[in-house]
Design brief:
globular, alpha/beta, 18 strands, about 525 residues, 3 domains, five-stranded mixed sheet, Aspartate Aminotransferase, domain 1, Aspartate Aminotransferase, domain 2
Length: about 525
């Protein structure tokens, strides 16, 4: 476990004068390693699965077992193969065995509880058929519904209903044609006010917010320094840009500074000319690890080496910070220190789409050059109204304290759930203030068994394995919500306690190493 002393969330938390001194706000981040025999047994488990996988592939080749995978016709095999045998090996022989834990269709509002359609398979999870039965009142521990606004509250949704009746459900055009609406301009102004920046631009899809806008910001002759755990949308956007990409170790500031120093000193390969731009790309909260970016240090490095910073707050906006304004507020940083602020409305706001925010010149440039503005269908008015409804609630401009209460409740639920998991001797990852809580199971067979047991107890969980995680670090990922009651969390913890003993996953030795990092007023790390 690492302990950091960071800039305060407000002036009352600062120790010393307003212009200097050290900051005394702590947060804890946990990445505990399992005993050595656990990864050894995990690799042995994969070895056995792979051995039987090759045996089954041999049987399929000789028609001793039916192959359900899509295959090329004989005349197509002479050209570029459509389906790579090795690439699909994992899916054919391992993923399909635990696939019944994924992709379960819900048939209700995805709130703190939801309803699931029951299904069965007759061919080992290759296809499913629905029984017509519904599993009701399942506790939802997998949705990114951090503030609980994915709800069916008729009174709260009245404004959304009115906008739907007036504007209709869709726009059927892009922003540059007939898709510009007064509601979108109102939303963009509100987002800029919420983030305390000059301007913002909204996109109709969160994934495309990254993948279509990063190529506009950098190109050939530019350098992107990307955290190794960045989301696929960031990776795709970086690749589409044509810029040179170098990856630094997750939240490792020494590794990042080394890459920055080398980039400044050596310049571009072969020519050694200076890079046109150096863009650091990070996330606020990492969705598979539950860790929070070390923003003060990254900003300090950005300023030192004259680089730019692209911050993806998809999972952190609304979820952390005293008033839900994300990691920039969580660390008490100035929004102007972040060159490009990106986020989505698909988590805390219970809606869809994303935004890019920052200086007005930046936003105006993106409006004129972004593919999401030129080619993507504009965000519909009811969606924009839902986002504004939630954002005004968080800001308190709707005249209530509901938003702030939900932000506080999420923080309380997160701390409670994480502390109980520590008490159960389960190995968990991430920051103590992060509502994403990965619990390590390690073996793929254990995560499958765990998910099935939890569903029988009417608890819906998300299990994650290779290739989304390292091969020996399969896990269950819990997402905490402000809508969760203490009774719900206690029921989940009880079943976790039982299954932790059954599956033998209580490996924590509570032997975490504490390290303190202290920052001065310029966000420079000092000796503790």
């Amino acid at each position: 476990m690492q302990t950091y002393c960071l800039p305060p969330q407000n002036s009352t938390q600062q120790n010393g004068s307003a212009n200097g001194g050290m900051y005394k706000r702590e947060y804890k981040e946990t990445f505990e390693e399992a005993p050595l025999y656990i990864p050894v047994l995990t690799y042995l488990c994969y070895g056995i699965l792979i051995l039987f996988g090759y045996l089954r592939d041999f049987m399929r080749r000789w028609k001793l077992e039916q192959c359900n995978m899509a295959e090329e016709r004989e005349k197509q095999r002479d050209f570029v193969p459509m389906y790579q045998d090795f690439e699909n090996f994992y899916k054919r022989n391992i993923y399909m065995r635990i696939r019944d834990c994924f992709n379960r269709p819900i048939c209700s509002v995805p709130g703190a509880r939801f309803d699931l359609m029951e299904r069965v398979t007759d061919d080992y999870n290759w296809t499913y058929r629905h029984t017509g039965k519904i599993i009701k009142d399942v506790i939802n521990m997998g949705s990114y519904n951090y503030l609980g606004f994915a709800e069916n509250n008729e009174e709260s949704l009245d404004t959304v209903k009115n906008v739907l009746e007036r504007y209709g459900a869709g726009v059927c055009s892009t922003r540059h044609e007939m898709g510009q609406m007064d509601k979108l301009q109102e939303l963009e102004d509100l987002v800029a006010e919420f983030l305390k920046v000059e301007a913002a631009m909204v996109c109709s899809m969160g994934f495309a917010t990254n993948s279509t806008n990063i190529p506009v910001l950098v190109g050939k002759g530019c350098l992107i320094l990307s955290d190794e755990l960045n989301h696929t949308s960031l990776i795709l956007g970086a690749r589409l840009s044509g810029a040179t990409i170098r990856v630094f170790q997750h939240n490792n500031m020494k590794n990042l500074e080394k890459l920055l120093r080398d980039a400044v000193v050596r310049g571009q390969p072969r020519t050694h000319r200076a890079w046109k731009k150096i863009l650091i790309v990070v996330e606020g909260i990492y969705s598979m690890e539950g860790s929070i970016v070390r923003l003060p240090e990254i900003i300090a490095l950005k300023k030192k080496y004259k680089a730019y910073l692209y911050l993806d707050e998809a999972h952190s906006i609304g979820a952390v910070g005293p008033t839900g304004r994300g990691v920039v507020e969580y660390f008490g940083m100035d929004p102007e220190d972040v060159d490009v602020m990106m986020g989505t409305f698909t988590k805390s706001f219970g809606s869809v789409g994303g935004y890019i925010a920052g200086k007005r010149d930046l936003v105006d440039y993106l409006r004129s050059h972004s593919h999401s503005a030129f080619y993507a269908t504009s965000m519909s008015a009811p969606i924009a109204e839902q986002i504004m409804r939630v954002m005004k609630c968080i800001m308190g401009s709707d005249g209530t304290l509901t938003g702030q209460q939900r932000v506080n409740q999420l923080a309380e639920n997160t701390r409670y759930f994480r502390q109980k998991l520590h008490d159960l001797k389960l190995i968990i990852y991430g920051n103590e203030d992060s509502p994403i809580v990965p619990v390590l199971m390690y073996m793929p067979t254990k995560v499958g068994a765990f998910a099935r047991h939890m569903l029988r107890k009417k608890i819906g969980v998300v299990i994650v394995g290779f290739p989304a995680t390292p091969i020996a670090e399969a896990r269950v990922r819990f997402c905490i919500s402000a809508a969760h009651t203490k009774e719900m969390l206690d029921k989940v913890l009880l079943e976790l306690d039982i299954m932790g003993d059954v599956l033998n996953v209580k490996h924590s030795r509570n032997s975490r190493t504490n390290r303190t990092v202290v920052y001065d007023e310029n966000n420079i790390e000092l000796d503790a």
